[in-house]
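Researcher: I need the complex structure. Ligand is pyridoxal-5'-phosphate. Inputs:
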Amino acid sequence: MNIPFNKPFIIGKELFNIAQSVIDGHLSGDGVFTQKCHDWLENHLHCRRAMLTHSCTAALEMSAILCDIQPGDEVILPSFTFVSTANAFVLRGATPVFIDIRPDTLNLNEQLVESAITEKTKAVVPVHYAGVGCEMDTLMAIAKQYNLYVIEDAAQAILSEYHGQKLGTIGHLGCLSFHETKNVMSGEGGALLINDEKFIQRAEIIREKGTNRSRFFRGEVDKYTWVDMGSSYLPSELIGAFLYAQLEHAEVITQERIRICQQYRILLSPLQEAGYIQLPTQIGNGHLFYILTRSLPERTELIQFLKQYHIYTVFHYIPLHSSPAGQKYDRVSGSLSVTDNVSDTILRLPVHYGIKSHEVEVVVDRIQTFYNELTLRTSSV
Ligand SMILES: *Cc1c(COP(=O)(O)O)cnc(C)c1O
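Model: Output:
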């Protein structure tokens, strides 16, 4: 048996929709399916406006431009995240300021934000790790007091909630990912969620190469022209066609992933009780399931052990503050000991739509065997 870490899937009319858009003869951006995706996101997540982008990375870059991030500005974010969370701001000449994460959710520790603020701070970027919400009430209150923007990196968090609000719709801006490793996917893909109305018009322009083409197509201006800085951030209609089919089944996909994560949590709890591993405290939207091992060498051994049985597990992230680019661009605020420790010991188990219950059982059995053998080995010396 081969249990891959991730497996892209189709669930509904993905290929039919793509054929439809080819037959309709509209393949560039902002056609019928892209509009359907925008409507779906606005209706199901309750943001003011949603705009598809090529990726979450692109949505983060648009956010940095919209917030007028300038060279020398500072942006507060966790070091335990994907590179794009920082890169989007580094591209504008800003300095990422890294703070530590909470040991329970692995989200940025909201208690550490205030001490990282300087007169150069412009924004805070909470990352909802594993689709579990950051402490948004605290973060929004701090942002208001210090006049900062909040840009949610909700790449992993589609349909997850914090106090009844969908993640990505609480800050000024939110960014989703539809990369093939995320819950809902289109290969590459993303969306910018705009919650503060003042950004809508400029976002349309930035996304359309700095032109007012969107207004032209609505008949609001009689020609379109270059009006602001911008780039090409809108995806092909083929992406929208594929994505819309996935969005139609987003609830089903989420429920299935949550079920898989819960199964892992129940089956692995004896190993947690025995003190071998630590399990997540919350499942979120079932985006991922991880265990924390007791040490880096133990994790390395476990990965190798599982690989023998064709079970593929992965770890992330190399903390950004210890990466070569991070050291060139960043500033660190306070100790990052939780970040360092978690990135040495975290292991992500296979979670994908379509993984079978008995496959989850096999993964857990093998992990159990690993710790049984480890105990035998250490008690015999
Ligand atoms: C996946 C991911 C991204 C990047 O998403 P892309 O769509 O691949 O650009 C950014 N941040 C986090 C936290 C992610 O998990």
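Model: Summary of the prediction. The chain has two domains: 14-249, 251-380.
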